[in-house]
């Protein structure tokens, strides 16, 4: 039996969170319902929000109010290291423009590790315009494929793991290519290794790019506008024939969430695949809405969702039980309820204008160049 948790044990982080959250509640912080790691303290002269990532806490609000929070935490027994510039958080580099209305988020620390590990292996490779080979689907290994060594498999898994961290924080343009690579983590093939080197080469050549934070600032007291683009690639996985879900969510024109993921079951039509993709995106939309609401932020309703399939829109807007749709899982039907409640409004968008397209397949250079500016930009563009 332990009287105190020991640093490094599984339960240590949870024990620290319990203590920190209890202290925050004792100094008038509330919330933590939509996300247990986000709490708010309301005040007459403004609110203070605090985001918790174990012992790395991000505090946002009026500086005088933040200083009061710091003093309260010190009085409660915490030793604090204060960084007022906020240029590096969770190994992400945060750069801002002079007028503070634009941000660039990159991962230079991880990039340095990637270059040290793979730079020499891809140095002589050609320069690529897209992260993944257009129209390529990585297949499971066949009996005729040569077996890779354990060292090569370890290297492959390490490379994909690094790419996943880039996708998570700063490089949504790598999402689909990385998803393809992750399908054969247990037994990669030589062709998959070749594709990995292509993605890494592209990433190293575009290391000056990072997440683009350039929101269209709303007028005073105007609610924030959330926009969703949803898409799917029907039966896109050639081994399992499952479809691929892709979506991206914007707040005031600034991307805040994205995903490229295989669906959990096989769908029987492109409309059904689009509806399943929309249902996944709707769950994320609801979370973001609840999160903003818990912070006291107003959100414009209904939230506009853009889909490039008329059949999916019809099934989402209408409660029907036709032979073509009555078999669809109930979890996709809750989209219909949100539309009826006025929370969502689904609109049609042409396939050529659906910016979520690059999250469902490896697209050609022309399409990739058309959309990538919505997500990433060079750091020099902050000027």
How would the blueprint of this fold be written?
Elements: H1 10-26, E1 30-31, E2 38-41, E3 48-53, E4 56-61, H2 63-75, E5 88-89, E6 92-96, E7 103-106, H3 108-122, H4 150-169, H5 175-182, H6 190-205, E8 209-213, E9 226-233, E10 244-251, E11 254-262, H7 270-294, E12 303-307, H8 310-317, H9 334-340, E13 344-348, H10 365-372, E14 376-378
Parallel strand pairs: 9-12, 12-13
Antiparallel strand pairs: 1-2, 2-3, 3-4, 5-6, 6-7, 7-8, 8-14, 9-10, 10-11
Helix pairs in contact: 3-6, 4-5, 7-8
- Topology order in helix (H) and strand (E) letters: HEEEEHEEEHHHHEEEEHEHHEHE
Largest sheet: 5 strands, antiparallel
Identify the overall geometry. Answer: globular
Task: Please compute the radius of gyration using only Cα atoms.
Answer: 23 Å
End-to-end separation:
57 Å
Task: List unreliable stretches of 5+ residues.
Answer: none
Mean pLDDT: 91
- Give the strand line-up of the largest sheet: 5-6-7-8-14
How many beta-strand elements? 14
Strand content: 15-25%
Category from helices, strands and their pairing? alpha+beta
Helix count from the secondary structure assignment:
10
Helical proportion?
25-40%
Task: Give a brief outline of the structure.
With 383 residues, the protein is an alpha+beta fold. The protein has helices at residues 10-26, 63-75, 108-122, 150-169, 175-182, 190-205, 270-294, 310-317, 334-340, 365-372; strands at residues 30-31, 38-41, 48-53, 56-61, 88-89, 92-96, 103-106, 209-213, 226-233, 244-251, 254-262, 303-307, 344-348, 376-378. It has a 5-stranded antiparallel sheet with strand order 5-6-7-8-14, with no helix packed on it. Strands 11-10-9-12-13 form a 5-stranded mixed sheet.
């Amino acid at each position: 039996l332990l009287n105190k948790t020991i640093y490094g044990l599984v339960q240590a982080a949870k024990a620290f969170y319990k203590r920190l959250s209890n202290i925050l509640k004792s100094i008038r912080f509330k919330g933590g319902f939509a996300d247990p790691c986000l709490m708010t303290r309301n005040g007459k002269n403004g609110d203070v929000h605090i985001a918790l990532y174990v012992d790395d806490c991000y505090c946002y609000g009026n500086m005088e109010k933040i200083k009061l929070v710091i003093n309260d935490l010190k009085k409660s027994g915490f030793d604090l290291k204060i960084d007022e510039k906020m240029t590096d958080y969770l190994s992400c580099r945060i750069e801002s423009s002079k007028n503070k209305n634009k941000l660039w988020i990159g991962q230079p620390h991880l990039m340095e590790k990637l270059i040290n590990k793979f730079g020499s292996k891809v140095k002589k490779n050609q320069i690529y315009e897209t992260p993944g080979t257009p129209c390529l689907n990585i297949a499971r290994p066949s009996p005729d494929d040569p077996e890779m060594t354990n060292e090569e498999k370890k290297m492959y898994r390490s490379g994909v793991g690094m790419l996943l961290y880039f996708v998570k924080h700063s490089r949504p343009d790598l999402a689909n290519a990385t998803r393809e690579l992750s399908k054969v983590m247990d037994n990669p093939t030589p062709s998959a290794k070749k594709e990995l080197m292509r993605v890494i080469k592209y990433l190293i050549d575009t290391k000056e790019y990072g997440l683009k934070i350039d929101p269209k600032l709303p007028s005073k007291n105007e609610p924030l506008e959330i926009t969703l683009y949803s898409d799917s690639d029907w039966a896109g996985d050639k081994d399992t024939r499952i479809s691929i879900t892709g979506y991206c969510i914007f707040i005031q024109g600034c991307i805040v969430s994205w995903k490229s993921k295989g669906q959990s079951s096989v769908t029987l039509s492109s409309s059904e695949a689009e509806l399943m993709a929309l249902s996944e995106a709707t769950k994320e939309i609801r979370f973001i809405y609840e999160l903003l609401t818990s912070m006291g932020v107003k959100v414009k309703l209904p939230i506009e969702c853009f889909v490039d399939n008329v059949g999916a829109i019809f099934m989402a807007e209408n409660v029907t039980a036709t032979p073509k749709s009555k078999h669809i899982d109930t979890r996709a039907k809750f989209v219909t309820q949100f539309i009826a409640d006025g929370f969502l409004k689904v609109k049609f968008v042409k396939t050529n204008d659906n910016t979520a397209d690059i999250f469902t397949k490896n697209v050609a250079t022309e399409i990739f160049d058309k959309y990538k500016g919505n997500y990433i930009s060079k750091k020099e563009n902050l000027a």
